[in-house]
Amino acid sequence: MELKNKTIGEIVAEDFRTAAIFKKYGIDFCCKGGRTITEACDKKDLNENQLINDLNTITKEKDDSLKVNDWSLDLLTNYIVRKHHNYVREKTPYLLQFLDKLCRVHGGRHPELIEINKLFTENTYELEKRMEKEEQVLFPLIGELTHSQQNNQAFLNLNFEKITNTISIIKEMFTTEAHRFESISQLTDKYTPPMDACSTYRVAFAMLQEFEENLLQSIHLENNILFPKIVDLKTQLN
To answer: Where does the Hemerythrin-like domain lie (predicted)?
Structure first.
């Protein structure tokens, strides 16, 4: 993989294992995946050669991960709903319950919990709105687009415009969601429980970390794989 000639989003799209390397260096591969390695390193004053060496090391190892970059649009959207949307809806009630309990029991000694709870609660509402927009508007339109391609039918420019506008809105929502979890990560010291943490405290922080990882992977799948595929398909149909 010739890394210098690719964007960060393209690198992660080809091999998701590289996401862990970018995260270690504090580089946003989800919402800012359009940058090159050089641009990201210059911005954060990082050692570019060391980063490239780390990336090359992991990409040379045997890869048994899913090749989502080769999937069809329909398969991708179905996977996003089943793997990521369902996860959010399953885990959110437990996290809200745990965070509320932590605020009541430990909020006096750890006031940062109040802000963490506030950020997660805000994100819960916005996340559900975004997922509904994807499931009820964007993904059905993508299904129609795929059907048009498979049957050599014309796809209305009006619908292309609707897809483009919806993607723009969703990208803004992605950025807000990622920023909220960046704040949560900072407030939790990268999800490190304090010395006096009870079992609920530790479970909640572990779940928050897993929740963020799921969210970032979902954003990556759409920003760096799904949306570029739509642009390519639009070019083919035109």
So the answer is: 79-230
